[in-house]
Each structure stands twice: as C-alpha cells, then as structure tokens.
Amino acid sequence: MSFLKPPKILRLGFIAIAVGLGVTASIGLTTSKWLGALGGGVFGLAVVLLDAALTNLTFRQFSNATMGLLVGFFCGLLINVVLRELFALVGVTPERDLILTIVGVAINVALGYWGVSLALRANRQEFSLLIPYVRFRQDSAQDSPLLVDSNIIIDGRVARICETGFLSGALVVPEFVLEELQLLADSPDPIKRQRGKRGLDYLREMQESPKLEVTIQAELLDDEPTDSKLLQMAKRLGARLLTNDRNLGRVAALQGVTVLNLDELAGAMRPTLSPGDPMSVKLLKEGKDSHQAVGYLEDGTMIVVNHAIEHLGKTVDIVVGSPLQTSAGRLIFAELSENPTGG
C-alpha cells in the first residue's frame, strides 16, 4: 500500500543536499570534487541509516533528550566557571590549565549524559514545571492519542464518531495491526477476506477524511501476541485504547491503560424507556402471537406491540409497557395508544 511507505523522496533529497555540500566544501579546500561528493554522500547516507535505526525514537523523546542535554551543558558551564575562578586564585600553570581543560570537558560530557538520562525518564508534569511557557496545564485524557485495534477498524463506526467531535485526538494505527488486516484480506477464507478488505477500505477512508488525523506507527516490538503489543504501545505513547474487545479492555484497565469501548458507548446511548412513556414506532412484521406486531428502535431494540397486527406496515403511537432483558438483547412490550396514527 503506497500511502503507508516512508517518505523516500525526503531521504533522497537530504542525501542530494549532503552531496552538494560535499562538493562545495571540496572547492573551498581545493580538493577533488568527486572526493567531496563521496564524503557528502557517505555523511548523508549515515544520517539516513541512523534515522532508520531509531524507529522507536519519538519526537517527544527527542525533544526531552535535547532539553536534558542543554540543561546538563549549562550546569557543566557553571561548574567550569567556578573551577576556573578557583584555579585563578592559586595561580594557574600551563600544566594546571591543561588539567582544567580536560576536567571541564569531562564534566560537560558527564552532566550532558546525566541530563539526557534524567530527561528521558521524566514525566510530562516535570517538564511542565521546567518549561512553563510550553504547557500551562496537565494534558487531559481527551487530548491523548487513540490507539485502535483491527476489530475497531473493521467495525467502521469510529470514523463517524470522530467526525462528530465526540472523540478527540489523533488515531494511531500500529503497523502490526495493518499487517493483520492485510493477512485477513489475503486469507483463503471468504469471510475473513471480506473482513480484511472492509477494514482496509475503512482505514483508507479515515486517512482521506480532512476531519481525522490518522498515523501509522511503526514499532520494533517483541514477537508477542497482538494484544500484548497493543498494551505496550499504549503505555509507551500514553494513548487511550479504542476497542470493542471486552476481554482486551479488562486486561488494559488492570494495567492502567485508559480504554474506550464502542459497544459500551452504544449501550449507554440507548434511550431510557420507562413504563407509561409514549413514543412512535413503525411496525415491520408479525409477532410471536397472532395479535402482535413488531417494530425496532434505531439502536436495534425490539418493540412488541400487543393487538397491533392490523397496523402492520404503519407508524403508530404506543405506550411503553414492561421491558425484558434477554440473551439476545433488550425486548420491550408495548400497547397501542388511544389514537394510533397511520404512516
């Protein structure tokens, strides 16, 4: 799938610029242009290979490490200034000046390493205190990314829900989930193949939607089950897990991962009906008893209306009776109102 490939044109452009810089440097140094081009190309290729090797390095980690390095160097600079003042008080000989330079470099390297190490282990709140002009409040859960699994992509409802604005945050699709969809699409089983193709079609629609931000996340994770890798990635990214897998949701909640289950959302959105509530429903088919007619709510709830068989195919006013919870779902019995309307 071409729209998921890494930006090769960007890497080739960087290598070309590096070659051009090498040629320019060779002119200034009055050396061979070919040698300069070779040196620039090797440098550009090394940078690109380093980028490919650091696949797991996120922008947040990079910025944290950079800030830690700057803080470490700043602390080292202060210490070196103090040491030079102390050496100046006792009189600095050339030997001592050399020692002071070596000690200064060692201090800068040590504190730079220490700063990077501490920064990578720091949490967001610590960085909010360190750099208050970057973020004045703690990130809310609504702003964290949404990590999706293959089931929720195949489900197809997530795109419509995100477009309404009820769910915010970028959608993150792990690369191993994409591979799982591809395997389903290539399966000899026609049902699995249809599910895989439907998932890939939904994913393409989500990527093309201007209202959604979809990111394909490449991860170098251990050869573990998909659910375990999803939980690892969710914890590393600080992401919410969007799924309709109840068992996966339970395990994720036990590990401290925020879980959003679309099936639970659909259940919560069902209208609350109490005995005596009036409503309208279209009667679509006969009921179990000869006098009953059956209609459905928008969420699929079955409404069985007594003594309504003569209104089959019409929209009638009813009064809610007793609800019944069955293994197949919710079932509601109702009676015709005094003045049913035809539709």
Fold and architecture overview:
The protein is α/β, with parallel strands linked by helices and 343 residues long. The protein folds into 4 domains: 1-53, no CATH class; 58-138, no CATH class; 141-268, Rossmann fold; 278-336, Nucleic acid-binding proteins (OB fold (Dihydrolipoamide Acetyltransferase, E2P)). The chain has 12 helices and 10 strands. The strands form 2 sheets. It has a 5-stranded parallel sheet with strand order 3-2-1-4-5. A hairpin with a 2-residue loop joins strand 9 (315-326) and strand 10. The relative contact order is 0.07. The model is unreliable at 1-6 and 128-140 (pLDDT under 50).
Task: Tell me the major beta sheet.
Answer: 5 strands, parallel
Strand order of the largest sheet: 3-2-1-4-5
Q: If you consult CATH, what is the topology of the largest domain?
A: Rossmann fold
CATH class of the largest domain: Alpha Beta
| Beta-strand percentage range | 15-25%
Question: Would you summarize the structure shown here?
Answer:
The chain has 343 residues and is an alpha/beta fold. The protein has helices spanning 8-28, 33-53, 59-90, 94-121, 124-130, 150-155, 157-164, 175-185, 190-208, 226-237, 246-254, 262-268; strands spanning 146-148, 171-174, 214-217, 240-243, 259-261, 278-286, 293-296, 302-306, 315-326, 329-336.
